[in-house]
Amino acid sequence: MKLDEDGVRAAMREYNSSLDGDHCGATRRIITAYLTAAPLAPVGGVEPVAWQRRLKFRDHHPDPGPWEMCSAEEARPGWNPDSTPGFEYRPLYSADAITSLSARLAEATSMLSEQGFEYNRKTNALIERHAAQIETLSARLAECERERDEARATIDTIDGLLNTTALCAEIITKQRDEARARIEALEKALKPFAEVAENDIGDDEADTDRFLPMRARNLAPTLTVGMFRAARAAFNKGEG
Fold it and tell me: Is the full-model pTM beyond 0.70?
């Protein structure tokens, strides 16, 4: 329904004068703050029934004075503000519009509360699911750490065995080399006697028989004192 502009201005002038007289109560401040969040545009698609203006606060105008009715064209977007730069504007709404906006505000608040509850529910469910995953991963981590410690202990044992094996191998190698050198020395010392037994002693001779060298008939080299001394030295070395 389109209202008569002059009648509305007169009614709103009287209404707002009474509001200015009671220093703007808390309810009016709340409604005005909500409805004038964008003062040069309709609030939520609701058309203002009228507009008011007053002087802006200036150092030379410390008192902005009362609100005065003005035309909608003056306060609308697109109007040139440079012609009256010293004014500020506010829209005026009917009681039905305020009630409608209040209902819409309550509905929006309820919707936000429901959305907040749903967000919290989903967030808590996500936290619980992640907490379960974290608990599972923590248990797996503890198991991995236990397996790691066992592996380290096994490696330490193996390292100890390897060190022992290396030491044993070193000892065995030394003993082998010493035995090989002794065998070579004994073979060298016993070789002349082995040649005599091979070439100058027959199979029909007894072990208790005495060997008497015969230079003319002996095939092996003649045994010398040095050969006996070499055999003794090789034997004594092993005994030492």
Answer: no
